[in-house]
Amino acid sequence: MTHGRGARRRTSRAATLAAALLAGTAGAQTTRLVSHVAGAPDTAGNGAAAATAAFAAGRYVAFESSATDLVAGYSGSGGQIYLWDRDAPTLRLVSHVPGSATAGGAGPSLAPRVSAEGRYVVFTSEAPDLIAGGSDGNALDDVFLWDRLSGDLRLASRAAGAPATAANGESFASAISADGRHVVFDSTATDLVAAGSDTNASEDVFQWDRTTGAVTLISHVSGGATQTGDGKSRFAVASADGGHVAFVSEATDLIAGAADTNDAPDIFLWSRDTGAVTLVSHVAGAPTTTGNGGCGKPSISADGRFVAFVADATDLISGGTDTNGESDAFLWGRESGLVRLVSHVPGSPTTAASGISVPVQVSDDGRWVILFSGAADLVAGVDANGADDAFLWDGDDGSVRLISHAAASGTTAGNGSSRPVALGPEARYVALTSDATDLVTGATDANSANDAFLWEQASGTLVLVSRTPAPAATAGNGSSAATAVGGDGRAVVVASLATDLVAGTDLNGGRDLFWRDLSWLFSDGFESGDWTAWSATVP
Predict the structure, then answer these.
(1) Is residue 112 pLDDT above 80, yes or no?
(2) pLDDT at position 287, please?
(3) What pLDDT does residue 521 have?
(4) Which residues are registered as beta bridge partners of 249?
(5) Taking the CA atoms of the chain, what radius of gyration do you get in angstroms?
(6) Which of 116, 149, 182, 221 is in the most buried spot, having the most CB atoms within 10 Å?
(7) Helix segments in 172-307, DSSP class H
(8) Which of these, 134, 132, 123, lies nearest to 95 by C-alpha position?
(9) CA 236 to centroid of chain Cα atoms
């Protein structure tokens, strides 16, 4: 009976929530322009923002823009990194030259990552003039760390023993620890580590320590901490403390006694405490034997205990059945050493679904994985769109749930393609991008393009995020994509070509960034799991 009452509460909540979303006042639903002109928070800058952004503490957004009017008194070219603060009226230039907070570096900067509390921003830049007294003769990308409190920049991809000298190869930032102390990056440089040996003529993975200034080689051979593997390593992701780093590598000599005959990339995990490298994508029952197909797209849990990844291999699961000829989604556990199939058919955790499946993110605790898939048999329902859909996998019971479902049915896929982008805490919320037009009851969507949505797990309800200020749920007049969700899951960053998401001026003809506050939806005690605390009085 308890289960039945819970089901009825969820149904009632979903119905009432849908009604509230449509009837809610515009004032209760806040969308703010992030990439705005200095002093004009409702006027878009004179250049486009990048399609991705880094989000911290639900408050700070780091992003790349070609605009030149986001900071008062700005000088320089476009292609710089900025930090937006929800609680401050101005943007700050991150990629600035020494001694001037408003002069951009003499080269493009891109791909920012931000620490958990928004103090540190790591990014990649070609600019040779970001470090006082620096020497940058590589004419390539380097990795920098900016401190919001001091405004100072430091070079992370530096030559060994020379903190202001750029290394002799191209470097690209890939991760930052929650406290901003450790920065992980890929690099072709051969002089990052003292007495190092690097003969693979390709990318390797490194970690820089902000406190000590030391650079450590992550993708090293077994028994040789300063010798790179015999193949390229890249696409690294890090645990919250930077103590574990998962990465993709084509090297065959990272594991002692390894059997690697697949001639394809594999997934590995490095531990800072031990310096050891472990094979993640291994054959069932054989921890040093790579699977029979290539792997990629790793995602790591906050504590480094779990790694999600995609693989073509068919021999990672004991007793598994995989006849789809496509990539599938997997999760590896560091403590158990076991690989689990995420994209499986209902009732059979070792049988791969019928289409390609790709994991996007594993939750902080490793229990949940969001993924997109073209398979029509991941859930028992109706999927007739012939496109990717968004799903949530629960590691506790192995179940898969459809996220991008039609408003009328939780097991019927929407009428367009959908992909999840980011998980909120404990998977209570998932941000996704979709061109489906039937995900929200009563919504108006005439843009024939992607829109951004937020899904709430408890009610199964989808909310249109990229909407106009009008009271009814109306999609903006251009393509929009969810790029990040806040640490508490109650704010979403959206990249959009729409010109009507805020009542302002947008003449740049390009993409802009927006921050949407959804805290009004979940400010009623529901965050504690109490469904009955929610009522129709929420605007």
Answers:
(1) yes
(2) 97
(3) 66
(4) 233, 266
(5) 23
(6) 182
(7) none
(8) 123
(9) 12
